[in-house]
Structure formats: C-alpha cells, structure tokens
Amino acid sequence: ETLYFHKENDKEDDKLCDSLEANTYGSDRKTNSRELKENCPPDRSLSKNWPLISSIIVYCIFQLHDMAYAEIFPLWAVSPKKYGGLNYSSADVGEVLTITALLSTYAFIAKLSGFKLTLMIDSASVLKYVPSVSISTRLFLLQNRAVIQGQRGAANGISMSAMSLFKAAGPAGGGSM
Question: Distance (Å, rounded) from C-alpha 43 to C-alpha 10?
Fold first, then answer.
C-alpha cells in the first residue's frame, strides 16, 4: 500500500509540475512561476539539490577516511612501541583486522599490554564497526529522501561513483601519511 500510495502521489506531483511549467510560458508568467516554486520540488536538477549533494559529500569523506584507516592501521600495529606503535606480530594484526579498531583510542591503547590490550582493541573494533554500518545506511536513506522517486537511480549512481573515487584515493592518501 505504501509503495502504491507514493507512486500515485509522485505521478500526481509530476503532472502538476509539468502543467505548471507548460503554463509558465503562457500569459500570466508571474503567478504560474510562483505556483511552480511552491508546489514543485525546488531543484529538479540533481546538481542543484543541496540535501543530496551534502549527503554525498559526507558519504565520500566517510569512505575516504575508512579506506585511509585500513591502510594506516597495519603499519601502526606492527611498529615498535618506541615509535608509538603496538609492536604486534602479523598474526596479531590479522586478528585485530577481522574486527577493526577505533582511531581515537590508539594513543591510550598503545600503553596497555596483555589481556587489557586485547580487550580494548576488541572493544574499539566493535565501536568502529557498528557506527560505520549505521552511517552508511542513514546516508543512503538521506540520499533517497532528497530526490523524487524517478531520480533515485541517477542519484544513487552519482553517489556510488563519487564514493568509489574517494575509496580509490583513500589508500594512496593514507599510505603517504
């Protein structure tokens, strides 16, 4: 029922907007232009849709950070403690990477050892993973709500393309750091 309801409303809105756009070129342009602005989505162009563009920017920055993190973490973990690393073996790094970790706790985690270190790394990993999935899901919802149903495919395509470019730049940027 909900999909049917939204589909019918979108069709009615599109018909209203199309008729108002057609009438704008008629005799009473000012009145029709005002009605068009009030009753139709303000920016039918995806490039001028600020809610969509802003959610795509946030999504891209998040993915860039996530990829840079994936590049930096193993290097930090195998570094000796005297350089601020964890002095982990490759096996330890592999174990942690199955869960991932939280950046803000690294300075404190490096000072721990034994069971406390393992507990903190595992806790940080869970804290990193859950928000990551939540953020991506929420950004997808924001992007889909920012456009009319007929533009969702194009909006998601733009979002995925931009995100892919940022994901590609992440390891290069993180590795150079």
Answer: 15
